[in-house]
Amino acid sequence: MRMGDEKKYKKNLETCQSQLARLSRELREKGIPVVILFEGMGTSGKGDRIQELIQPLDPRGFSVLTVKKPGKEERKYPWLRRYFMSIPPKGQIHIFNDSWYSQVVRRLAVKKPDDGFAKEKWKKINLFEQQLADDGTVILKFFLELSMDEQRHRLSFLKKNKDTAWLVSEKEKDQQRHFKRWKAGYDRMMKETDTPWAPWMVIDADQLSQAGIQVLTAVKDRLAEAVSKTNTGEELQLEKTENRLAHVDLSKTMEKDVYKKKYDEMKACMRSMQNRLYMEKIPLILVFEGWDASGKGGTIKRLTAPMDPRGYEVIPISAPAGDEKTHHYLWRFWKHMPKRGHVAVFDRSWYGRVLVERVEGFARPQEWMRAYDEINELEAMLQDEGAIILKFWLHIDKDEQERRFKERMENPEKQWKITDEDWRNREKWPDYEAAASDMFAKTSTKQIPWHVIPANSKYYARIKVMETILQSVEERLKG
Predict the structure, then answer these.
(1) d(CA 414, CA 411)
(2) What is the per-residue pLDDT for 230?
(3) How many domains does the chain have?
(4) DSSP letters of 128-158?
(5) Which of 328, 334, 433, 445 lies at a CB distance of 3.0 to 4.6 Å from 84, suitable for a disulfide?
(6) CA–CA separation, 40 and 154 (whole Å)
(7) Torsions phi, psi of 37, nearest 5?
(8) End of a domain among 228, 255, 274?
């Protein structure tokens, strides 16, 4: 770079950085999360571009993350989990030096590329980024395009100096040896994942005098657009659905002695089931929803009692708090997804978005209406990776709920279970009933249906739930 060009570059850089500093403060005030990711060949200048980008930013407002090859423990979890856990909270900027794309491109650059693996991952990545964008996250994706000759020149320069030779990794050596394979992998990446909500921006990384300005200008323009945008929300209409709960036969019951006998028989079956799931490395996800006092906790206690506590986790879900409130609403659930061979039991779940958050107004209409598709996508992703997902709604009538509420109030050992909120929720029974009906209509799929359990009889409900679990797992193991 000539002296005059260098001065001009520095001046333009400082102008962009000054504007970025102001925009980052506005983003923080408005609570807008930002994802900026860089992909490209080794020595394409990702580190330099990131350094120029963060220089004007408040260190409290950004994080730089490098996505490395997943370790042994990480590979036991759903593929998307570690990436969802890395997303920024509201008002923060996360900058990725390599990202969720790196592992997929690496698989395409080998001698015999795994095309099936790539197709599956492109689909998941597009859905992942769309969910973030729909929730208000600004996504900028940069590909730093480097020619084969320029990479060879830069690698040679690094190798000659003993202080920089260590920077040349085996990955970069492989990229130079098999440049065409790697380039084909990156080209495929951009073709499959260039979307309206997260388009790729290609930067000519051979031209050092222009690359930095191009990146900073693109970031500046996109952030300026984000802070000036007013989100009014689109008008969405929900079709009226049938009240599925009106047809549930709540007269089904079971005597205590029959229940005890059946439960004792099922204990060994539950232990055996857990062992077989572990041996086959199949994760099991159990979701429990239902009315207050419908018996969710008691059912969960009985079904997990025979199981090895090292292989399951019960996750009680209440109102989001702390970091949970500043992240995408699914973030707090991804961290509890089970690893292969383990069991996760959710006492309430992500369905709160379309139940309590809808009824109480904690989510805007466009947010909870969008959640039906997002939840279906989440569950389909988990099932595609081998998980068994069973969803239970424990149903009781209003009279039975009142009886149980009063019983709790009269029993000192159970008074902690009843709150003023339970009574307030009871007053909104028709609203919750309508929300549940819409939930069944929108999220009870052929692959992952809802199991509505008559629960006026606690004994009947517990046995029915365990029978359903054992039958479903057996079908999968035989399948």
Answers:
(1) 5
(2) 66
(3) 2
(4) HHHHHHHTT-EEEEEEEE--HHHHHHHHHHH
(5) 334
(6) 14
(7) -125, 150
(8) 228
Q: What pTM value is reported for the model?
A: 0.93
Q: Residue 338: how many CB atoms within 10 A of its CB?
A: 24
Residues 158, 306: one domain? no
Which region among 42-51, 203-212, 292-301 has the lowest average model confidence (pLDDT)?
203-212
Task: Mark which of 204, 228, 252 sits at the end of a domain.
Answer: 228
Instruction: Tell me which amino acid residue 468 is.
Output: T
Q: Which residues pair with 452 in a beta bridge?
A: 393
Return the pLDDT at 2. 52
Q: Does residue 219 lie within any of the structural domains?
A: yes
Q: Is the pLDDT score of 45 beyond 60? A: yes
Range of the domain at 7: 3-228
93: DSSP letter: E
Nearest alpha-carbon partner for 387 in 345, 349, 341: 341
Q: What is the pLDDT of residues 318-372, one digit of tens each?
A: 999 999 999 999 999 999 999 999 999 999 999 999 999 999 999 999 999 999 9
Closest CA to 394 of 465, 304, 472, 312: 465
Mean pLDDT of 194-217: 94
Tokens 């009843």 belong to which residue? 418
Q: How confident is the model at residue 6 (pLDDT cuts 50, 70, 90)?
A: confident
Structure tokens at 20: 């970025």
Question: Is the pLDDT confidence value at 236 over 90?
Answer: no
Whether residue 222 is found in the same domain as residue 290: no
Residues 264 and 178 in one domain: no
Q: Both 117 and 169 in a single domain?
A: yes
Angle of CA points 180, 182, 187, to nearest 5°: 90
Give dist(CA 174, CA 76) in Å, integer: 28
Residue 233 inside a domain? The answer is no
Average pLDDT value over all residues in the chain: 94
Domain-located, residue 237: no
Instruction: Specify the CATH number for the domain of residue 403.
Output: 3.40.50.300
Residue 235 lies inside a defined structural domain of this protein: no
Question: Scanning the structure block, which residue is given the tokens 């399951």?
Answer: 312
Strand, coil or helix: 444 = coil
Report the DSSP beta bridge partners of residue 278.
none
Residues 214 and 264 in one domain: no
Distance CA 384, CA 379 (A): 9
